[in-house]
Amino acid sequence: MKIGTIVARNYLPQARVLADSVRQHHPDVTLEVLVVDGEPADALAHDSMRIVLPDQLPLSAEQFSLMRLIYGAMELCTAVKPSLLQFLLQDDDVAVYLDPDIRLFAPIDELADAARAHGIVLTPHAVEPYPRDGLAMDERTIMRAGAFNLGFIAVGTGSESFLNWWAERLAREALVAPEAGLFTDQRWIDFVPSLFPCHILRDKGWNVAYWNLHERPLTRDPATGSLFAGGSRVRFFHYSGYDPSKPHIVSKHQGPMPRAVRTGQPILAEILDDYGADLLAAGWAESSKIPYRWDFIGGVPIPQEIRRFVYASTAPGTLQPPPPNPFAPGGPEAFRAWLSEPVARHGGRHIPRIVLEKWRRRPDLQERFPQPLDVDLPGLAQWTRWALKSGKYPEFSDFLELDPVGVSSPSATSAGPGITICGYLRAELGVGEAGRRTLLGAEQVGLPVSTLTYNQTHSRQNHEFFDREGDIHDLSIICVNADQTTSFLGHAHDRVRHSRMRVGLWFWEVEHFPDHFAAAAQGLDEVWAASEFVRDAIAATVNVPVRLMPLPIVPDPPSLLGRRHLGLPEDKWVCAFAFDTLSVLKRKNPQAVMRAFMEAFAVDDDAFLVIKVNNAWADHLAIDYLTYLAGHRPDIQVVVGTWTPVQMRAFYQVIDCYVSLHRSEGLGLTMAQAMAQAKPVVATSYSGNLAFMNDANSLLVPHTKQEVGEDAAPYLSSALWAEPDVSAAADMLRQLRKDDSLARSIGERAAHDIRTLHHPGVCGDFLRDQAMLASQRVARRA
After folding, report:
1. Which of 190, 478, 605, 616 is the most buried (most CB within 10 A)?
2. pLDDT, tens digit, 9 for 90 and up, residues 176-194
3. 453 vs 465: CA distance, rounded Å
4. How far apart are the first and last CA of the chain?
5. Sign of torsion, CA 271 274 279 280?
6. What is the H or E stretch that residue 110 is in?
């Protein structure tokens, strides 16, 4: 019996752990590891496994060259699976494939007998119906992925016709494209029971994984310690989607509503932690950073659109020669020339090959430019130039060059001095609150104002707000961030095109404002920012003026609700933090607040931490993560239920202290709300919150600078933000808890500064001046 697996180089630690488990239960078997982006030097590896390189497979060099271009890493690893099995069968009568993130817990000799008897051995994802409870996995997910999990397959002599059939289809049809009925190699295997002799293993001890744990509770034999699932001895466990840097998540593939969780499953937690420790010992932390070799052409990342374009252009029947090999010497330049090759010309403009393919894949472009090779070619060329400048299409910006095309502006009429405020005015969202506060400033000074509510957001639209009807004024303030400004202008064009001066009120949370967002400023005359931090970040990138606008901060009226109405203890010193899952969890950094609290106080210290999570429905994994960090601390409460605006106002009034150990903030309204209620605030001494915080009215936590890193989209991984000093924050919390007079004096100074420096009238005066300037500019243009 031969056993093999397939990896890219960054997955070699998983293969090493699998190899060790194979050697433990089958001392005479050496795991064969195909490295799809491997080089000859990779063959010098682990003593319990042997490296196989792609040129050893029964695949032509031309075929593999095309496969590595049309497929991403996961697709390619699954597409060459039948070829690896054919390779293994050259020296044995049974070949077993196991995904690299599998670990054996017992011998698997029975597979060899089943493969010899039946030719093909498969395991279904589940052998019992899934509960219909809205959690993942579920039956519809399995229908998209395939009935059988191809992290395992065994074949024997007599499976040659099946392997040839499978390999022929996976040469092009191993895409992750559920909309086209495809999901890597798996969906094809749904045909196997009706086309080929096979054996389906229904024993619950085989291929145990997150997708079937609902039917396979884990237990251990008290005498031997052997692992069982659903009463059957576990032969192997499949750790699909497990990441040792996020040990609280059973699998990243379950999404925000996971069925399989660690909570209440100590044996599952134990084997996950053991596996994570072994991965780290095998070099996971270093290897996981190795880039996939076939993800780059000449050092430039390959967009998915490029892969799909090559896939479509090389389909059987297209009668087109294959593209130049971009991975060969001189290949990147030849490949870019092929993509940019003109396929049509009209009026001095041309349409490159890749743009025409984009048109074929976009119904909206087909509707707008129905004759791209004739009269609509100039319009499509103009759209292409816009696409290049927008930065939204890396398949253009990295692989294509075009001459610019001018864009005309519509004529405009307006109502004169005054402002029109546009934005998410009913959304429970920070930028929506910014729009409402801007309106508050305008109304404070009696400035004529009209509003336009925009509802294209995932946030709840339950904030009570009534639009101010009226004329469209010379100055429109668009309270929509850069990433949505272009979309807003498209949706709201009929209402805002008559405004002769358009300003974007933008927020951004790190020092580097991305170049691809700067294109959104082309539809604006100015950008305004509510903090110097945001202003400086944006001004370094956009080519329009960027001004500082003082955003109003006002205390809420006293609430009749007390702690008991919010489920908070009456007899504890309560510190708090609130954040929204629709913001970036890594930036908000609630885990640092937890660590600081746990360092500052023991369970019996009469202190209590409450973390209020808004829009918890959007990220169940974040909730699981916080619950995991809290562990067995009864003095930490994570509140995920929906609160009304009245409850949220009461929240800031009943707490004793507010803590924000953010890595960066555009402004930080939750801190300002707590300060307005005379609460002492402990916060990172960095970013937009310094617009209203200083050493006299707050306790500012020192920090160091570090790169943003991964898992923080939309921020660039190379951008910088703060890493707050958790121990310093813990000291500050202890200080506030012990010294009531200090807490009171800081809170009173905070409330005074908010009332005087951030009064709505300050914003209103600014808006009135800008409205007058806008009208004067319009008059001069006329």
Report:
1. 478
2. 999 899 999 999 999 999 9
3. 9
4. 85
5. positive
6. helix 109-118
- Tokens 């086209």 — which residue? 180
Q: What angle do CA 286, 36, 255 make, to 5 degrees?
A: 65
Query: According to the model, what pLDDT value does residue 409 have?
Result: 30
Beta bridge partners of residue 547, listed in sequence order = 528
Q: Which tokens is 233 given?
A: 């001895």
Q: Which two tokens stand for residue 570?
A: 């009456």
Do you know the residue count of the chain?
Answer: 782
- 370 CA to centre of own chain: 35
pLDDT value at residue 407:
26
Q: Which residues contact 150 (CB under 8 A, 6 or more apart)?
A: 78, 81, 97, 184, 185, 186, 189
Contact between 94 and 111 under an 8 Å Cβ cutoff? The reply is yes
Distance CA 51, CA 45 (A): 7
What DSSP line would sit under 511-565, residue for residue? SPPPHHHHGGGGG-SEEEESSHHHHHHHHTT-SS-EEE------PPPPPS--HHH
CB 396 within 8 A of CB 388: yes
Helices 590-600 & 726-738, crossing angle to 10 degrees?
Answer: 50
Distance CA 748, CA 762 (A): 21
pLDDT at residue 197 in the model: 96
Look up residue 101 and give its amino acid.
Answer: D
What amino acid occupies position 595?
R
Q: Which residue has the tokens 């004793």?
A: 656
Closest by CA position to 237, among listed 260, 255, 259:
260
CA atoms within 13 A on the CB side of 512: 14
Sequential DSSP letters for 345-366: EETTEEEEHHHHHHHHH-HHHH
Q: What is the pLDDT of residue 494?
A: 56
Coil vs helix vs strand at 723: strand
Q: Which helix (H) or strand (E) holds 34?
A: strand 31-35
Which of 164, 161, 170 has the alpha carbon at shortest distance from 188? 170
User: Do residues 483 and 714 make contact, with C-beta atoms less than 8 angstroms apart?
Assistant: yes
DSSP state at residue 200? E
* Token pair listed for 565: 């109405």
**What is d(CA 107, CA 206) in angstroms, rounded to the nearest whole number?**
11
CB of 721 closer than 8 Å to CB of 663: yes
Ranges in the chain, pLDDT < 70: 43-46, 317-321, 343-350, 375, 389-390, 401-416, 458-464, 491-499, 781-782
Q: DSSP labels for 687-706?
A: SGGGGT--TTTSEEEPEEEE
| Measured distance CA(270)–CA(28) in Å, rounded | 29
Q: Residue 327 has which token pair?
A: 């991975």
Question: Could you give the CA distance from residue 624 to residue 631 in angstroms, rounded to a whole number?
Answer: 11
Q: Alpha-carbon distance 302 to 189, whole Å?
A: 29
pLDDT at 413: 44
Q: Which among 545, 502, 500 has a CA at the least distance from the CA of 782?
A: 500
Query: For residues 547 and 545, what is the distance between their CA atoms, to the nearest angstrom?
Result: 7
Structure tokens at 172: 């092009």
For residue 107, what pLDDT is reported?
97
HSE toward the beta carbon, residue 350, CA cutoff 13 A: 13
CB atoms within 10 A of CB 286: 11
